[in-house]
């Protein structure tokens, strides 16, 4: 491992914490969103997302404002901080999806329910793009499910995934490999 101030143990210990936290928080929250939104779109809207609801504009602004900070954290190798910000985005998206309750809305207003899902799916794409440095395979799996080309940080939060057909849902499974993270820190 990398030695900081001649104390290799610190980093290794924090690395383990970091990896465990990434596994728990990030993966659970992204998987939760993808595994709720995508199958719902398949079942109810012929696998298609539509347009964004007007009400989400403030959420989009909040998410977009976090992207430059996340990039900066990565550049400074403050991976914990980067991940915390990405988890915050996943929480915004999950809370919106839960509160907007498309499974109730769909009974009375299909278009509104589809729009709710469109926002959730766009958030999945944003999160996938942002986690790529720490979870490249996981990010690629999400992009495959969403049928989106690989994006970079410039268009991470474009929220331009509209009138678009999703690919088949696959269960997302990945654990972070501590050696990968270590290699990245040493690069």
CATH architecture: Orthogonal Bundle
Task: Determine the mean pLDDT.
Answer: 87
Rg value: 17 Å
Reported for the largest beta sheet, the result is: 2 strands, antiparallel
CATH superfamily, by name, is Isoleucyl-tRNA Synthetase, Domain 1
- Uncertain runs: 1-9
Could you give the topology of this structure?
Layout: H1 8-44, E1 48-49, H2 57-75, H3 79-100, H4 102-105, H5 110-131, H6 136-146, E2 164-165, H7 178-186
Antiparallel strand pairs: 1-2
Helix pairs in contact: 1-3, 1-5, 2-3, 3-5, 5-6
Protein name: Methionine--tRNA ligase
Organism: Candidatus Entotheonella gemina
Keywords: Aminoacyl-tRNA synthetase, ATP-binding, Ligase, Nucleotide-binding, Protein biosynthesis
Describe the overall structure.
With 187 residues, this protein is mainly alpha-helical. Helices cover 66% and strands 2% of the residues. The chain contains seven helices and two strands; from the N terminus they run H-E-H-H-H-H-H-E-H. The chain has a two-stranded antiparallel sheet. Helix 2 (57-75) runs antiparallel to helix 3 (79-100) and helix 3 (79-100) packs antiparallel against helix 5 (110-131).
Looking at this protein, list some descriptive labels.
Isoleucyl-tRNA Synthetase, Domain 1; two-stranded antiparallel ribbon; mainly alpha; 187 residues; 66% helix; 7 helices
